User: What shape does this take?
Amino acid sequence: MEILRTENLTKIYGKGTNKVVALDNVSLSVEKGEFIAIVGASGSGKSTLLHLLGGVDKPTSGTVYVDGKDIYKLNEDALAIFRRREVGLIYQFYNLIPILNVVENITLPLALDNREVDKETLNNLLKLLGLENRKNHLPNELSGGQQQRTSIGRALITNPAIILADEPTGNLDTKSSEEIVELLKKTNKEYKQTIIMITHNLEIAKVADRIIKLEDGKIVKEVE
Amino acid sequence: MNLLNKLTIKNLILNKKRTIVTIMGIILSVALITAVSSMYASGISSLINFEINRSGNYHAHFKNVPASSLATFKNNLGVSKILITKDLGYASINSENPDKPYAFIKAYTKDSLDNLSVNLTEGRLPENESEIIIPTHLKTNGRLELKVGDTITLNVGERISSDGAILKQNNPFRNDPESELSEKIINPTRKTYKIVGIMNRPPSTVESYSAPGYTFITYLTPENITNDLDLFVQYTKKGLKNAYGITANLLNVDEDLFVKVNKNSNITEEDYDNYVLMMEKAKYPVNLNTYLIGLETNPLNPTSITGLGTVVLIVLAIIVFTSVFCIKNSFNISITEKIKQYGMLKSIGATKKQIRKNVFYEATILGLFGIPLGILFGFLASYILIIISNYFLKDFIIGGGLLIFKFSYLALIVAIILGIITVYTSAIKSAHQASLVTPIDSIRNSNNIKINPKQLKTPNIITKLFGIGGTISYKNLKRNKKKYRTTVISLVVSVFVFIALSSFMNLAFIAVDEEVKLSDYNLSIFIDEKDLAPQKITEATSLDNIDNYSILRNNGFLIPKANHSKEYLDWYEVENYKEAYIDVYSIGDTQYKKYLKTLGLDYNETKNKGILIENYKASKYNSQTKKTISKYFHIYAYKKGDTINDLEVAKVTSTPPFGFKNRQSSYLIVSDEYFNQNFTTNSIQIVYKSSNASKVQDELDNLFKGEDYSIENIEENVRMMNSLYTLIGIFLYGFIIVVTLIGITNIFNTITTNMELRRQEFAMLKSIGMTKKEFTHMIRLESIFMGIKALFFGLIIGIALSYLIYYALGKELGISYKLPIMAILIAVIAVFLLISLIMKYSMNKINKQNTIETIRNENI
Assistant: This one.
């Protein structure tokens, strides 16, 4: 079943001589439960693609369908709600709210939706993330790996259609990186979670079902 | 320019708005300092001017100096000017004032005429020894009318007492027939003068109220400068600093003892005795103009002008403190923002000292803009304030003495020094903090927020009521407790000072109103009846615009054995049948008959009786309960038919006739017929209720021109009091507004910067799906939480203060305490308006940012 499809997705920054084509007519289809890695050099358009998929940026032209819905036809508020329910974002620098503790950060998307937190789901998730003993810690009391696991928890809690991870291991040491990748793989296998991950590291990319290589805003190679 | 400094300037330009707001804070604070010190300096010079105008421009007055000693004065380096006058003596004139039968002729040199407060009302100053000027009160008080151009011949001689003593202006005229002493003028010289001018009555230092001679002033020619001179000496600026020492030298007495006794209040009896002995041996008697010396030498001396100096010092301290408190925050903010930069600079080898210097460089740049502009605005403000003050004061001060603007170097220096102190004190802590930044801090970029989970505990009710947005905003306020504390405190102070001030002003106006309500008349005139034509009284009571009037004559009885009421005796714990004095009034026939009608009495039956008014309110302060209790009761136990001395009481009542509403006492009202038979009085008072008091006042002035009278216009008084309070209000509100503005610059900087610092956080919240509405809601809650906190403390303190003010001032007026609801409402609205405006401003800025750009920028 197809969960995500882009058609001729294009993003152009700037005008005239400053014009940069970050994404050039990218068409892509993702099946539910797929784990995709996007690789490419700096400036190849990886992050732009990811942000457009997540509905946090606006394309210059082209469309993004999630679950058959054209997300850029939604108004701003509806798009925000779409992000909160259907997309889980994971950043290189975690982007946790420094004044909220682990549990509060993880449940933030639910809280924004005024949804009750299912205790059991939360506990299972904390166990999966290995954060059972860190529930009430603030981000600055956690290691980098723990912070990233918290942000993965935040992405998973809403049971979103897709998880978009922007270099989730970029700021971590090897051991923590392996743990994070393992965790993503596990959620992909156990929950049939669709994941699209950007990475520099080819070793890490290898865990994915499919590797897409971007160059100058175009897909140059797809590896199964 | 040093690279670091270049960077600072770039940063200041980059954060243009904050830089401007910070500079504005500095401008406001320096302007306030300048205005306060400049107003004070202007006030002092106004006082000096007023004093010089009133009693002359001199520092010491030496008496009986022979011309041979003049050189000693001239050669003294501390002396800048010598004003010479000479008393020529007394001459009898046809004055109608029995206590002032003489003209006292003085001769002044040109300098003396110019400097010793000779204020002409018409004509010119005398220019030779046959010209003379006379005082205005010769006519008003002595009823001797002389005009400019008249020639008078005077037999000028010395007053001598029958016991042989020579009499001067400080010896009143000896005309008491029962006294054995009398006086006469001896050795008269005949002199003819031409009157060339009329001057105001000289100050009491020249002609005291008991002086027997009207002061006439003629010209003192150089050849007449012989002996018995009066020298009014001005000291040089340098000399003033040692005014007492120089005076002692001129007197040829011991300098130490003279200075000690004149300057020091704690002197021993022995010192004083020695001083008296020494002064007897001094070359001449001396009078020091200590008031003027004090004003000119030590303008900040707290004791010199009723503690005004102290008040100014306290106010300046408050301004500096408030300003440092607020401006400090701006520096602190700029440091927090630049931590990354400082860390980076350190990692490439900048030393602590360089970083610290860099912060001070920033302070210098800001100060260079803020301080001169602040001084400029400060002087401008004080100039305008003086114009405004004079507008309100002109009703009060008749005959000069308005405030004069004076550019004071002292004020300028004070402003510069305090301005520099303010700016650098504000920067010190930030400079220190910046120097402590380590390179690693810049890499982590998270160190400035050290959070303790406990401190972020949020009550469940917040989450329940306001959702996650509420929780985040609540926690954020707690995280930035220190930063927001200054914001909250600025608001709290503004709120409570505003409320307290409004209560004070309110009370002041109520007090004035009460004073109006207290009396039933609005115009009153006292006239000396002695030589007054009776038809003038009739004329005075038949003017237009008079609704009601009473002609009051007053005298009294001594009751040898007064019969007091029991309440009175209990209240004062005294015995009955002791001597007492009771006032007796007549109120004019017309009013008397009218009054009898209201009481239901018959004129013929009552005219030889008295009506006893019992209208007494006693107040007593109980030191134990700390309360003032008051009670109405009768002073006397007399009833209808009783006699007081020989006067039968026709009625005892608490209803007074017109004109007595404000007299809370016991007194007798009698008919004019009875009064004239039994009493005499020299002065009468007419009280009016008029629909146009000012017009009646003008007509009365016209009617009694040349007579001895005084008019009190209560409406005029009220108007004057109101304008005085308005003036005080302008000063107080002006002060608090500027202090609040300084606070607002701080609030603005804190809030906008804080929003700026949380950009990334906001972007993240948006990226995980917070809608614009929810975001706005969250920010709004934050301003509400902050506003509530500020108002909570501000209102409590404000209301408490307003009650204290009421307790100190209002209770006396018998007004019950009222919550200053208007002020509270204004404060509440102003606080929320202010915070939400600033929040909205920063929110707009944040909403303009692209979510993705923000996240990306921070990630790089």
Remarks:
- The beta strands of chain A are 2-13, 20-31, 35-40, 61-66, 69-70, 87-90, 162-166, 194-198, 210-215, 218-223.
- Chain A has one domain: 2-223.
